[in-house]
Design brief:
alpha+beta; two-stranded parallel ribbon; 2 helices
Length: 63
């Protein structure tokens, strides 16, 4: 997720956009929005996440 968040941060910096409203739909979008908000709070005015998760477990780790 960090790679995608860094890509989004790079795009926002390139466009010189600040105080953006991030909307993370189910899954990866939520995680990317969270990473951006955590790592560059100066870019984010608000965030709406629908269907975020707190951690990820690989299928091989499940009994």
């Amino acid at each position: 997720m960090k790679m995608h968040a860094n890509d989004l941060i790079g795009l926002l910096d390139h466009l010189e956009w600040k105080n953006v409203h991030l909307i993370g739909l189910v899954g990866m979008g939520c995680c990317v929005a969270q990473e951006v908000a955590i790592n560059r709070p100066d870019l984010v005015r608000s965030m709406v996440n629908m269907g975020a998760w707190a951690y990820w477990i690989h299928i091989s780790m499940i009994n």
